[in-house]
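Bumping my old thread because nobody answered last time. Still need a sequence for this structure:
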């Protein structure tokens, strides 16, 4: 991730942090199911932990949880929740997920939820996925989710871009307009095939990829993959 994109992304998520927290409280079922399968002795990272909606249930179950995010404001919100819950097993780190400040083979498992698609450029997305592999212990598992390109809301947009897009196909600016804000956020929306290709390119073993309708009625709006470090 370039320094400019890092700074832009950091500012974007800092600016919408409070609004985001108000609207993103409930953990996703797919994440809770994954967390509930983890042994209590595990050391787990929440990559792109945001406002902590998945980090908190993970910390209540596992030995230690490390939350990493690009936004200091979101980390501050998460820190306040950790204090309210009296959780002493959480460490929060401000960082860029293309350069994760954790040691090789240091994690039993990880969550990487709705964050990979905010990294601009396939090269840097692959770099981030390779970082995930690096920090996992042998046979460590990760739940990764990304937005689907062909979901109901954006299908027409990408059909129009199919033969005319100057950007990397799948790139889009999606505006955060809640609480009277109007702030663009970078996304790279994935096809299922592209998602699988990048996971394989990063040498992560795919256990399964699931197409999920969280908000769409017709087409899946999210892909959830469980991958393993071989």
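Sorry it took so long. Here it is:
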């Amino acid at each position: 991730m370039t320094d400019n994109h890092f700074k832009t992304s950091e500012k974007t998520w800092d600016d919408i942090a409070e609004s985001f927290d108000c609207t993103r409280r409930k953990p996703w079922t797919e994440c809770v199911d994954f967390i509930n399968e983890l042994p209590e002795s595990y050391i787990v990272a929440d990559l792109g932990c945001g406002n902590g909606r998945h980090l908190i249930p993970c910390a209540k179950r596992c030995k230690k949880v490390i939350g990493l995010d690009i936004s200091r404001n979101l980390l501050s919100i998460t820190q306040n929740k950790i204090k309210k819950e009296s959780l002493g097993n959480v460490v929060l780190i401000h960082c860029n997920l293309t350069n994760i400040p954790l040691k090789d083979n240091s994690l039993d498992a990880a969550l990487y939820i709705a964050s990979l698609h905010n990294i601009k450029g396939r090269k840097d997305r692959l770099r981030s996925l390779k970082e995930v592999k690096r920090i996992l212990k042998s046979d460590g598992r990760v739940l990764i989710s990304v937005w689907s390109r062909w979901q109901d809301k954006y299908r027409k947009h990408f059909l129009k871009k199919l033969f005319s897009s100057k950007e990397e196909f799948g790139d889009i600016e999606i505006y955060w307009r809640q609480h009277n804000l109007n702030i663009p956020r970078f996304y790279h929306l994935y096809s299922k095939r592209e998602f699988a290709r990048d996971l394989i390119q990063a040498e992560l073993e795919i256990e399964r990829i699931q197409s999920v309708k969280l908000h769409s009625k017709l087409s899946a709006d999210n892909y959830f993959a469980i991958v393993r470090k071989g």
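Strands lie at 43-47, 64-69, 90-94, 107-113, 136-147, 171-176, 183-188, 205-212, 222-228. Let me know if any region looks off to you.
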